[in-house]
TrEMBL record:
InterPro entries: Amidohydrolase, Bact_exopeptidase_dim_dom, Peptidase_M20, Peptidase_M20_dimer. GO terms for biological process: diaminopimelate biosynthetic process. Residues 189-283 form the Peptidase M20 dimerisation domain. The keyword Lipoprotein does not apply. This is Amidohydrolase. Pfam families: M20_dimer, Peptidase_M20. The lineage of its organism: Bacteria, Bacillati, Bacillota, Clostridia, Eubacteriales. It comes from Thermanaerosceptrum fracticalcis.
Length: 397
């Protein structure tokens, strides 16, 4: 029997080294050529077959086991954020971007899992596909990779991924958080243009005031969540941007608004999108104005497969022990495009606690001082590797 814990611990220093090298070259969005080249080089050194430029700068490795078998995918995102780093770390980024969400660690931990699995490929009862994805922070790299066939040849029948950090405060350092169903919200965007008729501010009767109309629209939109969504299902409608007018004494022609919708249920997501436009249309036209409305369905709600998660928990008990497995009680309203993979194949997305107050690693995600505790990296690698081995074992029975 393989001792994945010992193997992952033996790779700890190498995983940390990979993470630090990646941390110095953060790239934003779908444009991650340098990061992709780094990953491809490491896979090549390991003797793992890979493809580049999958759905853009995505990299996909394939470890083939002995004989025929099913295929599980392990996914890591590898993009950073347009944030100037202020951590003071000796390996801090100097290119104006920053790995402020832990994707450098995700990539390094998956490289570690790849090294373990490839060393024991003759014992795998199937295949492991390694998905290194750009663009998770936006505009989203999962769907382009799926559209480019990442889940085919060989066909992927399960998927596993992780996120490090402090998104869920109840998950302590080195602990893992799991959810058996809805874990993260959709990530949608909408824009509204409220059209009126400009006029002199002292003569409002000669025009149609889009600012007054906007006030009514803002109040009404908030009733969607408070009065039209089931109270036990969290949802958010947020207006984050308003622009209208250029002078204190002029009623403008139009006001522009932008906002986001978050929902953990697909049917409620679609209902909110529909009701947004219906309310805007009714109010603007009832007040002699008009409107333009655009809704962008972004990342869908992230929903873990209950049965797969149950099996993964059994795997995790081998790595971290039962006391360090925390069931996440409530979903987060943040979004993650791992959801696109989980829409198509069963799997789970788990969280690895990466904060540590004793080391002053306390800053939140997307903060210029964000960091993670490197001492937990071996755990992420071991969980990914053992998760793949166990799933293939059961799938081959």
């Amino acid at each position: 029997m393989l001792n994945i814990v010992d193997e992952a611990k033996s790779l700890q220093n190498e995983i940390v080294s990979w993470r630090r090298e990646l941390h110095q070259i953060p790239e934003v969005g779908l444009e991650t050529p340098q990061t992709a080249a780094y990953v491809a080089a490491k896979l090549g050194e390991m003797g793992i077959a890979y493809k580049t430029n999958v759905g853009g700068h995505g990299v996909v490795g394939l470890i083939k086991g002995q004989g025929e078998g099913k295929t599980i995918a392990l996914r890591a995102d590898m993009d950073g954020l347009a944030i100037k780093e202020e951590t003071g770390l000796p390996f801090a980024s100097t290119n104006g971007n920053m790995h402020a969400c832990g994707h450098d660690a995700h990539t390094a931990m998956l490289l570690g899992a790849a090294k373990i699995l490839n060393a024991h490929r003759d014992q795998l009862k199937g295949n492991v596909k390694l998905i290194f994805q750009p663009g998770e922070e936006g505009p989203g790299g999962a769907k382009p990779m799926i559209d480019d066939g990442v889940l085919e040849n060989p066909k992927v029948e399960a998927v596993l991924g992780l996120h490090i950090g402090t998104i869920f405060k109840e998950i302590g350092t080195g602990q893992i958080g799991v959810s058996y169903g809805n874990l993260m919200a959709c990530l949608d965007q909408f824009s509204i243009k409220i059209k009126g008729k400009g006029c002199h501010g002292a003569m409002p009767d000669t025009g149609v005031d889009p600012i007054v109309i906007t006030g009514q629209v803002l109040s009404a939109l908030q009733t969607i969540v408070s009065r039209e969504v089931k109270p036990v299902n969290p949802a958010v409608v947020t207006i984050g941007k308003i622009h209208g007018g250029r002078a204190y004494n002029i009623i403008p022609d139009e006001v522009e608004l932008e906002g986001t919708v978050r929902s953990i249920k697909q049917d409620e997501r679609e209902k909110i999108a529909r009701r947004l436009e219906e309310i805007v249309a009714s109010i603007t036209r009832g007040m002699r104005g008009d409107y333009e409305f655009n809704y962008i369905f972004g990342y869908p709600p992230l929903v873990n497969d209950g049965q797969f998660t149950k099996s993964f928990v059994e795997t995790a008990q081998k790595i971290v022990g039962e006391k360090d497995i925390i069931e996440i009680p409530y979903p987060t309203m943040g979004g993650e495009d791992m959801a696109f993979f989980l829409e198509r194949v069963p799997g789970t997305f788990f969280f690895l606690g990466g904060g540590n107050e004793a080391k002053n690693i306390v800053y939140p995600h997307h903060n210029a001082k964000f960091d993670v505790d490197e001492d937990v990296f071996w755990r992420g690698t071991a969980l990914l590797a053992q998760g793949a081995i166990d799933w293939l074992e059961k799938a081959g029975e």
